[in-house]
Each structure stands twice: as C-alpha cells, then as structure tokens.
C-alpha cells in the first residue's frame, strides 16, 4: 500500500506548491494558462512518447483493453444522460463532465499504483492507450467542432497529425509496435522535457484552487457530483463486473482493471478544459473530489480483490 500513499502524497504536495505560489502572489491566476500551454504543446507529448515507446504491445491489446473500453462507454454515456436530466444544457460542459467521469489519472498516479499495488507497471498500458489514442483525440475533435460550430471529418482525421498530445502518443505506439530502440541522444532530452509535464499540470491546477471552493452554486455542481460519483464508485464496479463476467479475465487481471478504474480523474481533463476554455470548474472540482476519494476506494479494492 506504500505505493498508493506515496503517489497521492507526491501529487498533493505539488498541487499545494501551486496554491502557495498563488497565495504568496508569486504568480497570478492567469499564469496557469502559460504553464498549461507549455505542458500541452511540449512536455506532455514528450512524456507520452517516452512512456508508450517502451510499452509491450502484447500486454496492451488484451481483454483488459476491452474491459476499460466498455466500462468507459457505459459509465460515460450514463453520466452524460444524468447530467442532461439534471438540467445541464451546455454542450461543452457536458462533454467535459462526461469525460471527467471516466478519464483516469493513469500516468502520474496509475504508474506507481500499477507498480506497487498491482505488482506490474505494464498493466496500466492498455488504459493509457485507450485514453491517449482513442479518448483524447475524440474529445478534442468534439471540442474543436463545438468551438468552430461545425463537425468536419477532415479535422477529425487530421487530429493525429496536428494535436501534439495525440501525435506524441501515436509515435510512441509506432515505435513500440515496430520494436525499435530509440537512441539515447534522442530519448534522453525527451525524458528531460517529459519530466516537466506532470509538475506543470499540477502547479497550474494548484494555482486555480486559490480563492476557490468546490461545489459553489452556479458552477455546475450537479455535473460535478454526477462525475465524481461515476468516477469514484460506478466505474470501478462496472469494470469489475465486465472483467469477471463478460471477459472472463484471470483474478490478477480483474484486480488490475478494478484498481485502475478506481483512480481519480486525470489532470489532463483540466488541461483540456483550460485549453478550450470550457467546463473548467467542472473539471477542476471533479479532479479535486475524486483525488480525495481515490485513496480510500483504491485501498478498499486492494483489500477485497487482491489475488
């Protein structure tokens, strides 16, 4: 359980640093946008390339990938339907809210959890691929369409070539699938740049918390509550049911899928919301609440399902 506690402790500390910098007026609230741009266009693509380039393709394309994909579809659509029934009519906020209900923090929490709680870091690879190669491009294509006012097939097909995050992820998958070994003079600077991605996102998130309280009236708190409940409780249960009864995974794989489904909402969702200036508060509050809930939920899953 040390890995779970360590992962959450590290994240909480870096978020606190961002909040403290804003509280001391070292940075302004608007500075979070600059940090986000650096993470979005440079650091995050480098990080995702280095992670996925080393992933084992044989581990990625298994029943675990199908489990995560179906669970995300079921819970994501269900969350969007509930938000609509509760009165949310802003399309952009609905998209961000539904994705916040199913987009897991598979990198900066998922990797240490996979290593120390599940016992093998490669178990997180299917979830990373699903989110970075499928979910992220679709999300940004929809947000692009909402911003431009039209859905263009050309823009959707161009996502892998114009979006830096999708491009970095796709190139990493190609390298892994081809079995190539990236030369150290190329990989080392990418690792250095990628190492800045998570701190930049967390500091920007911390800055956004200064002077703010979650679940304030008029900020879409019904959407936040739906997304938080779905992410923290519904997604792990659905993933466990699918892994056990629909796909017949082995106990270790069932355990891994359920643990990873219990992760909090990824910081990327705030990054995307901030980038497109839509649903920012919904993403921010959902990340905060699911991060608080994730530790007890993950520990409970570990106690109940550990093979």
Automatic annotation (TrEMBL):
UniProt topology in membrane: Multi-pass membrane protein
- Enumerate the UniProt keywords alphabetically: Cell membrane, Membrane, Transmembrane, Transmembrane helix, Transport
Q: Does the keyword Endoplasmic reticulum apply?
A: no
List the subcellular locations.
Answer: Membrane
Cellular component terms (Gene Ontology): membrane
Xref: InterPro entries: Mem_transp_PIN-like
Q: Please give the start and end residues of each transmembrane region.
A: 6-27, 34-53, 65-87, 94-118, 124-146, 158-180, 192-212, 224-248, 286-305
**What are the GO BP annotations of this UniProt entry?**
transmembrane transport
Q: Which PANTHER family match?
A: AUXIN EFFLUX CARRIER FAMILY PROTEIN, TRANSPORTER AUXIN EFFLUX CARRIER EC FAMILY
What name appears for this protein in its UniProt entry?
A: AEC family transporter
């Amino acid at each position: 359980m040390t890995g779970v506690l360590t992962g959450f402790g590290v994240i909480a500390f870096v978020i606190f640093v961002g909040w403290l910098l804003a509280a001391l007026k070292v940075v302004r609230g608007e500075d979070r946008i600059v940090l986000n741009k650096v993470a979005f266009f440079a650091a995050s693509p480098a990080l995702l390339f280095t992670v996925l380039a080393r992933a084992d393709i044989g581990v990625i394309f298994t029943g675990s990938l199908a489990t995560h994909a179906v669970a995300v579809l079921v819970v994501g659509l269900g969350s969007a339907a509930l938000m609509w029934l509760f009165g949310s009519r802003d399309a952009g906020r609905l998209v961000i809210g539904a994705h916040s209900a199913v987009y897991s923090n598979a990198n900066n929490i998922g990797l240490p959890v996979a290593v120390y709680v599940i016992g093998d870091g490669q178990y997180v690879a299917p979830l990373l691929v699903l989110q970075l190669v499928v979910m992220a491009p679709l999300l940004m294509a929809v947000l692009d369409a909402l911003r431009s006012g039209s859905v263009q097939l050309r823009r959707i097909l161009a996502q892998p070539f114009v979006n830096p995050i999708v491009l970095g992820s796709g190139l990493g998958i190609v390298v892994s699938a081809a079995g190539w070994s990236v030369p150290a003079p190329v990989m080392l600077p990418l690792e250095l740049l990628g190492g800045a991605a998570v701190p930049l996102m967390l500091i920007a998130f911390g800055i956004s918390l200064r002077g703010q309280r979650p679940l304030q009236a008029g900020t879409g708190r019904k959407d936040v509550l739906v997304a938080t409940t779905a992410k923290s409780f519904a997604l792990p249960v659905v993933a466990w049911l699918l892994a056990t009864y629909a796909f017949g995974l082995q106990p270790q794989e069932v355990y891994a899928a359920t643990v990873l489904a219990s992760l909090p909402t990824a910081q990327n969702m705030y990054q995307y919301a901030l980038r497109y200036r839509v649903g920012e508060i919904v993403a921010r509050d959902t990340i905060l609440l699911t991060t608080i809930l994730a530790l007890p939920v993950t520990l409970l899953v570990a106690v109940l399902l550990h093979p």
